[in-house]
């Protein structure tokens, strides 16, 4: 029997099943990335994700320092702990990147998202939509005889719950900003 033949039920590992020795637990992390505000930087950061097959759940970007020409990119991504560490390391090596923070592991943070939802309906469905909007503290920012546009802010889970309740009442369209996040405290 050669060394390449492994008996069924053996605890030995081969190079073909090394993947099973690493954690397969998928985690969601929120990353805050401070970058130069110049053309092509966002494309380079996103290219890092797409080129390696990493997933982006949410992405927001805006200039946060006008004089220093810096933008903050907030990325919500998923992967194994090893993949998350690899993403942070690769982001940190990019030239236009000044700082990478994993808000998920650095302590508590505040995460919020804004969504607009258009709900179409009349009669009892319209009344129920207004009642639920009040419970969720959503604001009606547009109203016609056949529809409402609600604005809601909160955690992604809160927005998901609101949208799920609006579906049977005539949810027609949703627009979401993606997560904006900051670490709590000093």
Automatic annotation (TrEMBL):
Q: Which domain of life is it from?
A: Bacteria
Provide the ACT domain boundaries: 30-105
Tell me what this protein is called: Acetolactate synthase small subunit
Q: What is its EC number?
A: 2.2.1.6
InterPro entries, per database record: Acetalactate_synth_ssu (IPR004789), Acetolactate_synth/TF_NikR_C (IPR027271), Acetolactate_synth_ssu_C (IPR019455), ACT-like_dom_sf (IPR045865), ACT_dom (IPR002912), AHAS_ACT (IPR039557), AHAS_small-like_ACT (IPR054480)
Q: What class of enzyme is it?
A: transferase
**Purpose:** Catalyzes the conversion of 2 pyruvate molecules into acetolactate in the first common step of the biosynthetic pathway of the branched-amino acids such as leucine, isoleucine, and valine.
The reaction(s) annotated as catalysed by this protein in its Swiss-Prot or TrEMBL entry are: 2 pyruvate + H(+) = (2S)-2-acetolactate + CO2
Gene name tied to this protein: ilvH
Which SUPFAM superfamilies does this chain map to? ACT-like
Organism whose genome encodes this protein: Roseivivax marinus
Task: Name the pathway.
Answer: Amino-acid biosynthesis; L-valine biosynthesis; L-valine from pyruvate: step 1/4; Amino-acid biosynthesis; L-isoleucine biosynthesis; L-isoleucine from 2-oxobutanoate: step 1/4
Q: Which family, according to UniProt?
A: Belongs to the acetolactate synthase small subunit family.
Record text on subunit structure and interactions: Dimer of large and small chains.
């Amino acid at each position: 029997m050669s060394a390449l033949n492994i008996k069924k039920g053996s605890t030995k590992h081969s190079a073909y099943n090394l993947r099973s020795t690493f954690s397969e637990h998928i985690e969601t992390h929120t990353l805050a990335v401070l970058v130069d505000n110049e053309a092509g930087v966002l494309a380079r950061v996103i290219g890092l994700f797409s080129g390696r097959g990493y997933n982006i759940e949410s992405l927001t970007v805006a200039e946060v320092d006008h004089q220093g020409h810096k933008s903050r990119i907030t990325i919500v991504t998923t992967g194994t702990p090893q993949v998350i560490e690899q993403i942070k390391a690769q982001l940190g090596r990019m030239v236009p990147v000044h700082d990478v923070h994993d808000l998920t592991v650095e302590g508590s943070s505040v995460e919020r998202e804004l969504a607009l939802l258009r709900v179409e309906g009349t009669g009892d469905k319209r009344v129920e939509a207004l009642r639920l909007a009040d419970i969720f503290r959503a604001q009606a920012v547009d109203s016609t005889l056949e529809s409402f546009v609600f604005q809601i802010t909160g955690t992604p889970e809160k927005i998901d719950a609101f949208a799920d309740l609006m579906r049977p009442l005539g949810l027609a369209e949703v627009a979401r900003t993606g997560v904006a996040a900051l670490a709590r405290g000093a």
